[in-house]
């Protein structure tokens, strides 16, 4: 580490799902990071953010910018609100510690977790935190798989909503009459030789939507999910 740690950069991240579930906002993270830098007497150069990105890997615009700044030794310490804001994977944590932070003499500090990467004990503690962060991620994935499997067993629809259908109160796939009529009209116009632009204007919708309507594979959906779907619509 450099003798005088003065230049600090904050990093914040939140996915849409996390904010809805845990209430962790970008602004709340920024406030805590700023307060810590002020208390330490560090010069907080900037706070880099990745809004709407998960922590499953480091392939994020903000994370890439942060790594680039560290490699250029333009910073002395990186501050995060919590370890899992920068990564949830243990292998990525060790990559950051050994290949980025330690290799470029950059300190790493968390607002809510007491570790200091300048000491052997601090590094060991951080490694344990990384192990638990990985465990948490694996448990979430496992619970998600179990929940989806349970929904499938009950006959509930899982996955992207197919064009022309909707989910009823029982969680099952059912026809959307209005959408099916639009599909039928789009297919009919196309068979009559109308261009995508002509159909788009006739239906008052975008060409992208027209493409989805015309290419909706209703016959396979009928055979698997909606036995009562009108043959006239399927054709």
Summarize the structure in words.
With 235 residues, the protein is of the alpha/beta class. It folds into two domains: 7-142, Resolvase, N-terminal catalytic domain (Rossmann fold, 3-Layer(aba) Sandwich), CATH 3.40.50.1390; 165-234, Arc Repressor Mutant, subunit A (Orthogonal Bundle). 53% of the residues lie in helices and 13% in strands. The chain has eleven helices and six strands. It has helices spanning 16-22, 26-40, 61-71, 83-86, 90-101, 120-153, 177-191, 196-203, 207-214, 218-224, 231-234; strands at 7-14, 43-51, 77-80, 107-110, 165-167, 173-175. The strands form two sheets. Strands 2-1-3-4 form a four-stranded parallel β-sheet, sandwiched between helices. A two-stranded antiparallel ribbon has the order 5-6. A hairpin with a 5-residue loop joins β5 (165-167) and β6 (173-175). The longest helix is centred in the middle third of the chain and has 34 residues, at 120-153. The termini are far apart. Residues 227-235 have low confidence and may be disordered.
Task: Give the SSE layout.
Layout: E1 7-14, H1 16-22, H2 26-40, E2 43-51, H3 61-71, E3 77-80, H4 83-86, H5 90-101, E4 107-110, H6 120-153, E5 165-167, E6 173-175, H7 177-191, H8 196-203, H9 207-214, H10 218-224, H11 231-234
Parallel strand pairs: 1-2, 1-3, 3-4
Antiparallel strand pairs: 5-6
Helix pairs in contact: 8-9
């Amino acid at each position: 580490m450099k003798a005088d740690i003065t230049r600090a950069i904050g990093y914040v991240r939140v996915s849409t799902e996390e904010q809805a579930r845990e209430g962790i906002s970008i602004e709340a993270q920024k406030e805590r990071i700023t307060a810590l830098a002020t208390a330490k007497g560090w010069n907080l150069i900037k706070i880099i953010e990745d809004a709407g990105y998960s922590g499953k890997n480091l392939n994020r615009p903000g994370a890439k910018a942060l790594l680039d700044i560290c490699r250029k030794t333009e910073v002395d310490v990186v501050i995060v609100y919590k370890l899992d804001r920068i990564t949830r994977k243990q292998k990525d944590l060790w990559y950051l510690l050994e290949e980025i932070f330690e290799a470029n003499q950059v300190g790493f500090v968390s607002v809510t977790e007491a570790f200091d990467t300048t000491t052997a004990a601090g590094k060991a503690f951080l490694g344990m935190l990384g192990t638990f962060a990985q465990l948490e991620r694996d448990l979430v994935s496992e619970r998600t798989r179990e929940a989806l499997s349970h929904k499938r067993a009950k006959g509930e629809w899982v996955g992207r909503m197919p064009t022309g259908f909707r989910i009823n109160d029982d969680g099952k796939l059912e026809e959307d009459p209005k959408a099916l009529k639009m599909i039928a009209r789009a297919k009919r116009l196309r068979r009559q030789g109308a261009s995508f632009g002509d159909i788009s204007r006739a239906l008052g919708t975008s060409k992208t939507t027209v493409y989805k309507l015309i290419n909706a594979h209703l016959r396979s959906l009928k055979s698997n999910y909606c036995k009562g779907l009108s043959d006239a619509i399927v054709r």
